From TrEMBL:
Residues 318-341 have a biased composition (Basic residues). This is Cadherin domain-containing protein. The lineage of its organism: Eukaryota, Metazoa, Spiralia, Lophotrochozoa, Mollusca. Residues 16-35 have a biased composition (Polar residues). InterPro entries: Cadherin-like_dom, Cadherin-like_sf, Protocadherin/Cadherin-CA.
Amino acid sequence: MSYLQPDFSHGGDNEAAQSSNTTSDLNGSGEGQLTTTVTNTENIKAGDTVYKVGCPDHNNDSVQYALITEPVSELFRIDTGGMIRASRDLKPLCASSINFKVTCKDPKDSTVRRVSVKATLDGANRQPTITGINFNTDVAENTTVGTTLATFSVTDDDSNISCRLTSTPAESTQYFGLDHTQRSIIVKSKLNYEQPQTRHTNVTVTCSDGFCASNLAYVYIRVTDVNESTDNATGRGGEGDGGRGLDGEGGREGGNRTANTTVVTTTERMEEGHSEGGGEVEGRGGREGESERERAGLKPLQKKTGGKRERQKERKAARQARKDKKKEKRRERKQKRKNKERKTNTEGE
């Protein structure tokens, strides 16, 4: 009966440090546990030997080897001679240690032995480390574009570090970005509290040296509301006095006024709309308004050229003209009643 005798010699292109302990007797069942240190890990190239686990058979039968790594990695393989080799350059390896689990099997009599090697990876590439953030912050919606919200630092042996920003929700990347020179998170575009889906945003930063990714770092951003003083009447006034009727201009002056005038009569509505932004009356038809003014005994509206006092005088004169006209009508009605009474009295006599 053949049996397997493990050979835990170290060798190859990368000389590993001596193991700190030995396996149990693998002539019987069981698992051998070893530790080792792999030096200059970052510079190991594809094909270089990392560790040798030989399981020679006393009958010189061929031995089958199988390798499992913890954590799982495709950077290592084992050949038919029990050599653990780098399947690719180890520059992308971003771990401080790795476990090699090797199975040796004699296919003729199904004898199996297992070897576990914990390897410390000295000189391996290290992942960049981000510090300085991981906090919550409030940002007013009127914050100036370009304002720095947070600054972070990146520690790594390599100098060619690149960083990227992602956000949840994804739409928030239109509002927040990275200043790569200053290593900071900035306001990229005007914020808007009225957009509920982006009021709260989790911004995440990651960095890489091209091989190893950093830890995840975050800033949780809450956009706060700002009282925006908006004169709605001003906007309507400016549009209304765009005067597709009488004025036919841009209505800029009407827009700058309050547009809070109480409308009493058609004539007064035309007058107030002309000077204070009531452009809807004028916009529906200047010719209609003109006939109303003529019936009221007023002059046609002229293009505004004067200042505030002149317009106030015009309105005062218009009101006085209306009062005078009403007074004249009352006088006429009173005179008609008197004439009617006289006629009745004369007929009675």
